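Repro:
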Amino acid sequence: MIPDGDRLERMDTTPSNTPYLSPDTLQGLTEPRRSRFKLTHEKRRSLWGLAFAIPAMVFFALFAVYPILRTFYLSFFEYSVVDPPVYTGLDNYQSIIGDKRFNTSLLNTFKYVAFTYIPVLILALLLALALNTKIKGRGIFRTIYFVPVVMSWVVVSVIWKLIFHRNGLFNSTFLHPFGVGPKNWLTDLSLAPDAIVIMSVWKELGFFMVIFLAGLQNVRGDLIEAAKVDGASPLQVFRSITLPLLQPTILFTTVIAMITGLQVFIPQFVMTKGGPVDATLVLTLNIYQTAFVFLDGGKAAAMSVVLFCIIAAITLMQFWLYRSSAYD
């Protein structure tokens, strides 16, 4: 036992420069040190999102980005698909400039886009305006018009190939009752493109109708009611209110229609194989035949690059026109 006096004396002899530690400091020293790299809830969510997005990004890079880059690369080579590529520079691009078959396929592609998607967009808008009103059975009509959209292009092409047969439904139902003889829709030089256009309009109409319906749902009803109260006619309401508010939807539909039309392949391949006499030969079908029938992969790659540039240029031009009209 140490006397109380000695204990006090020892306490007095303690050095005066000893730092004072508060209770909070002592408690912090006794607790385990926290990591400086501890992730917050937001960072953990971001990392999980990145982890789930990586497979999709890898898939997109392998099956979208890499083929595009590979196509640009092969367009400068002589490549027969089965033999190693040989560098030839710009020879493939020079060969397609005066290629009559390439020019024919490019012209047929633009004709298909114009004759198919201009009527489709106009009819889809009119149908959307009609089905946006309170008419009986509009849900049934929407379903009927949308059924062709869920069918694949191959199935639709096979069905319409049978319909356009000389003894098919089209001749017997629409021509024979009026005393018109049967026509060879898919083998006639002038009728084959029209047959594919008719089928494509039937197939694509419902898709664009639904998009226009979605756009019409965003048109404010109070503006239309105010215009009607002021005495505006339905045509004036459509021209001054509905149509301007549909500009983003119109831009979207025109871009999608242009891209889809320029890349068309299945109807011409299934129904006519590009015939008769290249009357329905489109650019994508020409690319396919050049690569896998004529075994000229380098030239096919060059044509693919040209198609890519055409689609990109037209899309950028559409966006530029939309922005110009928006600022005006």
